[in-house]
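Hi V.,

Quick status before I head out on leave. The structure for the redesign project is tokenized and pasted below; the design run finished overnight.
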């Protein structure tokens, strides 16, 4: 199964924290970053990539995805 690495930025700690919880619900692994600065990185399965990108967008985040 293909895995993707998401790098996302948010306007602040609150939205980054919300994204972290939602990505964990999508079974993201290796979630890390500078949450207090509004940035995070997560590894996700390719089959949930669209959902993950949509949730980041819905909470006003910006994301880039790369195949790992």
């Amino acid at each position: 199964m293909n895995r993707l690495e998401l790098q996302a930025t948010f306007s602040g700690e609150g939205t980054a924290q919300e994204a972290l919880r939602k990505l964990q619900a999508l079974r993201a692994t290796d979630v890390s970053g500078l949450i207090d600065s509004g940035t995070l990185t997560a590894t996700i399965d390719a089959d949930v990539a669209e959902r993950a990108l949509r949730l980041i967008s819905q909470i006003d985040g910006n994301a880039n995805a790369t195949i790992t």
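Above is the designed sequence. The mean pLDDT is 90.

G. will cover questions while I'm gone.

Best,
W.
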